Amino acid sequence: MPVQAASRVAALKNIATRLRIDSVRSTSEAGSGHPSSCASAAELVAALFFSEMRYDPRDPKNPDNDRFVLSKGHAAPILYAAWAEAGIITRDETLNLRKFDSDLEGHPTPRLPWVDVATGSLGQGLCAAVGIALNARRIGSEYRTYVLMGDGETAEGSVWESAHAAPHHKLDNLVAITDVNALGQAGPTQWQHDMEAYAVKWRAFDWHTIVIDGHDMAAILAALDEAHRTKGRPTMILAKTIKGKNIPFIEGKNGWHGKPLKKGEEMQRALDELEKQFVPEDEPVATPELPRSSARKDPSGPISLDPPSYKLGDTVATREAYGDALAKLGAKDIRVVALDADVKNSTFSDKFEQRVGERFYENYIAEQVMIGAAMGLAARGAIPFPSTFAAFLTRAYDFIRMAAISNLNIKMAGSHAGVSIGEDGPSQMALEDLAMMRAQPNIAVLYPCDAVSTERLIAKMANHKGPMYMRTSRPKTPVIYGPNETFEVGGLKVLRESGNDVATVIGAGITVFEALKAHDDLKAKGTAIRVIDLYSLQPIDAATLLRCAKETNGRLITVEDHYASGGIGDAVASAVASAGFTVKRLAVRDIPRSGKPEELVDHYGISARHIVNAVRA
Amino acid sequence: MPVQAASRVAALKNIATRLRIDSVRSTSEAGSGHPSSCASAAELVAALFFSEMRYDPRDPKNPDNDRFVLSKGHAAPILYAAWAEAGIITRDETLNLRKFDSDLEGHPTPRLPWVDVATGSLGQGLCAAVGIALNARRIGSEYRTYVLMGDGETAEGSVWESAHAAPHHKLDNLVAITDVNALGQAGPTQWQHDMEAYAVKWRAFDWHTIVIDGHDMAAILAALDEAHRTKGRPTMILAKTIKGKNIPFIEGKNGWHGKPLKKGEEMQRALDELEKQFVPEDEPVATPELPRSSARKDPSGPISLDPPSYKLGDTVATREAYGDALAKLGAKDIRVVALDADVKNSTFSDKFEQRVGERFYENYIAEQVMIGAAMGLAARGAIPFPSTFAAFLTRAYDFIRMAAISNLNIKMAGSHAGVSIGEDGPSQMALEDLAMMRAQPNIAVLYPCDAVSTERLIAKMANHKGPMYMRTSRPKTPVIYGPNETFEVGGLKVLRESGNDVATVIGAGITVFEALKAHDDLKAKGTAIRVIDLYSLQPIDAATLLRCAKETNGRLITVEDHYASGGIGDAVASAVASAGFTVKRLAVRDIPRSGKPEELVDHYGISARHIVNAVRA
User: Fold this and answer.
1) Engineering a disulfide at A81: which of A22, B295, B492, B565 sits with its beta carbon 3.0 to 4.6 angstroms away?
2) Could you tell me if B602 lies within 8 Å of chain A, comparing CB atoms?
3) Best of A109, A160, A599 to disrupt the B interface by mutation (most B CBs within 10 Å)?
4) Quick check: A284 pLDDT over 80?
5) Catalytic residue among A153, A362, A367, A455
6) Which is nearest to A166 in space by CA: A149, A180, A152?
7) Interchain CB distance below 8 Å, B440 and A432
8) How far apart are CA B381 and CA B387, in angstroms?
């Protein structure tokens, strides 16, 4: 331990005591919360915020500030207490914990400027931290990333995805600390206080691993110092702690998870005990050390691409157009990064890798850390495009949910949508991805049908703030838009229109071509229909849909390579309901099976033939 | 190696050659598929099916058959080839691989009687195998469970959830084999052929771990024998293999993932090479050894519960009624099992644990293995009820998707739905669970509002075949149904009805009580409304909804503690669309925040006040 740090031990101990006091007070005032989970982490948080981390408490936006992720988000009160101690908020403000009009929520969210990613769904913090640490490399900053995890959450598989990813990326700017207090919500944690059971696993995953007493301030400082000296791989500090530490009547006791001390006598008893624990200080703790300015400044403003080079009638899969567009974007702007989960040659994100390999992150078959790392990257200014088969994004739905809560600027893409993938069968077919994404109110959902609209919309995604999703298809489809056609998030294209259309057929992706075929078949027999390419499902152009409904006898027919719930049918129905219009939905209604794409598209009721029948019905 | 097995080596080698030949033939015929991934596993599969496993090839239903899970589902052709070798199907049938009218799909599904769970989404097989192995204990069978995994899929976090769960449950009847062929889809796998990188991890997770050459038949047999002798923990056999083994021109080459040999010259070249590899046999392989009958026979037929003991006006949270009902069910029938992810004292599944602890499986904070193990248990005749906070079921959405594809009899329950949980904030609030579950066409979705309907519906869940989901709430709600009231999957209750209702208000869960309050408020001012408790969202009672729509001026108002997409509003809208009715939806439309439950219910627009306004609009 450096001499300077050693002289701070007493002062840091007193900070830990004040953090405990504030955590008890705020949770008692709120009448809910997790004081016992705060108490186990008090020395760790004190050491991080007042000895280890470099940050400017007056400038949360400083790109070189060290980053802290509270993966055990239920310990939020001690994070808020640390901010109060640092002068970021007032001590009085901490008493607004969990109130409706305060941003000091039960679990931290990026509504608070010092929070990068919302936590509270356990096992996500380390995944995000991988992305935050990768971003330091991207912008050339010396900032370091610290994560505080609970021991219970290390049962989550996502933790082991990041356990693999961080050493793979050689992230020696990443330090994780596990607060091993041995008690979960419902009882003892999986390995309790068997520190060796933790250590052997982290070492096996190639982390520099240090086991300490998490209440021994000198040991904490020494471990953090050792982490600084560790090159080429991340450090895991396994801190043996006691839940409820230093509040004697709850210390190490089961049954005190998520339970505040009752305001009044019970709280006062705890505070009296804590007040007794202050020690004389040799040297007052200075304000946190400021970061060194070293980051390369990210460009600001929109990224523009030249018009696509596809020609009308070319046949190109939208997944391939995605890869091409992504590579172009990446070459234009250092904010753009791409993440893969061992399918880059199917999603065509390998085109990005070939062009800008230094901003391409391979996650192997691990979708949770792919999305989690994208969340961390987005939180620090990158524009990440994680992509895999759309079906496998379901693996990361909890991360996507939390990315929505955080309103992060991530740009997800899922390929191989629907039964039109063919022979591989249902395990590889995404038929619920639109439902899953649309359920989140702030995720924009795009679903282009051709290469031009794909490329144009990828550029829009890069420039549109907030979480977004693009669905792409496996089969090749003809280019139907000219290179100067424009596309908007929230737009659609009316592809066929006449004064005597008897119905409006609304498709997206591969069903646009089924609708066009139905149009031609019907036209040959004297019936006119309107055809819409609904390339933006959320937001949705309700005004144009309503106009078309009115102009085509109120007859709207949707057709989608997706299950019947939550996709195009529901999106359109919801958009036109207020005007009293309803929708006839053609969608996949059974669990599908293997077969040829065209065979499946027809069998599951979404081919041109079925559209023709629906128009005639 | 036992003498008997040793004498079989030559014969087993020849079986491996035949399995390679069949895998090449079937994929070439299909024009797609993964012959190279089959070739690496040929000796492993031959040893398992023709020396190690006990099963009756004529009786897939035998409860004592050893079980095999092909976690690397893309190697399906070699599984089908093994069945052909065992006489379960004909060799000619294997040539129907991936055809629409054959059940020999691109990845195996339980349409095939020898398949327990659909695979093809990597990283799931071992989780299911944990459940299958637990089931052997439940029914007192000596059957053993074998899983064949790929090396690429061990990057999935779910694998490490099961890596922890299996030794935790001391499953020495479980043997996993990793086919370490070092090549994934897009390139080398994460640890390639560094066998020690794998071994150190599995040992750290407390598996008996054996490293072998996966093409050395004697070594395979010896490892399987060692697994038999290993007590108290599962065995992991790490088999170093070559992708495309024994087809010299593709052996160990990148770029041959998921690529068949071209029918004609290319295929013939491979077959010629393989044909040369047959060796003289000392002793022909006998038919597989038959299982010993040892299983306790599961009861058949429905489970009935006595009427609930709640009294009208009692206030009981539906999550607590869930726990009570589950405990009653468990005491009645040994098929019923419960699984938790460290929240048993919040979901009240601890009531089950207290009553039937031997059929309660704690998974710690690991939702994927909780659902995966439930899938395995369901596949073998158990009626599993996995439960956690509904928000955290999003963590297992890919498993839920695959459970739907498998049409497994799992009974999921999610508590703490919606903004009505209050102060904990959005990370703990499920607001997309109904959308996520309803998207799957064969998952039944229930959402009771009081204790009586919860208990009645839990009994229905146990007796209704197929995947199901129940959503429960955190707050206490009054009991509104008498003990003899009956509830059906696909039913609803009209709670308030008069001849002059101006609108029908449809709620479920906590919003039923907001609707009842709105009813009373409006009634006091002379306006009558109809109120429906839509406790079954999928299937849905469209007939009654249509009748009510007709009787109440076509005015349907839904109100739900869920985001606007995919929940009650969309379910009702879809059910009544064909008759031209539309729905006014009250739902949560923004990312919520912490606050008091009643404060949030009102702020997000789903309280009685908002219903009254909607009725008056």
Assistant:
1) A22
2) no
3) A160
4) no
5) A367
6) A149
7) yes
8) 19
Under 8 Å between Cβ of A292 and A143 = no
Tokens 């990361």, residue located: A396
d(CA B577, CA B580): 5
- The answer, yes or no, to whether the previous bond of B539 is cis (omega within 30 of 0) is yes
Name the residue in chain B with its Cα closest to that of A434. B439
Cis-peptide, bond into residue A539, ω within 30° of zero = yes
Give the number of other CB atoms < 10 A from CB of residue A304. Answer: 11
Instruction: Assign A254 to helix, strand or coil.
Output: coil
Asked if B599's CB is within 8 angstroms of A30's CB, the reply is: no
A275 contact B CB<8A:
no
Residue of A nearest to B406 (CA): A591
- The Cα A377–Cα A120 span in angstroms is 19
Phi then psi for residue A537, to 5 deg, are: -85, -30
Q: What is the DSSP string of A28-42?
A: HHHT-S-HHHHHTTH
pLDDT given at position A1: 46
What does the pLDDT look like over B461-509, one tens digit per residue?
999 999 999 999 999 999 999 999 999 999 999 999 999 999 999 999 9
A367 is annotated as an active-site residue: yes
Round to whole Å and give the CA distance between A6 and A414: 52
B544 interface with A at CB cutoff 8 Å? no
Q: Is A55 in contact with A288 (CB distance < 8 Å)?
A: yes
β-pairing verdict for A383-389 and A411-415: parallel
Is A555 touching B (CB cutoff 8 A)? no
Closest chain B residue by Cα to residue A163: B157
Give the ipTM of the model, two decimals please.
0.98
pTM: 0.98
Cβ–Cβ under 8 Å, residues B171 and B92: no
Q: What is the mean pLDDT of chain B?
A: 97
Contact B417, B390 (CB under 8 A): yes
Task: Note whether B451 contacts A: Cβ–Cβ < 8 A.
Answer: no
The answer to whether the CB of B24 falls within 8 A of the CB of B247 is: yes
Indicate the SS3 state at residue B557.
strand
Exposure string (b/e) for B60-87, b if CB count within 10 Å is 16 or more?
eebbbbbbbbbbbbbbbbbbbbbbbbbe
The yes-or-no verdict on residue B321 having pLDDT over 50 is yes
**How far is the C-alpha of A373 from the C-alpha of B408, rounded, in Å?**
33
Instruction: List, as ranges, residues 414-443 from A with C-beta within 8 Å of B.
Output: 422-428, 431-432, 435-436, 438-442
Tokens (6 digits) for A571: 């999106």
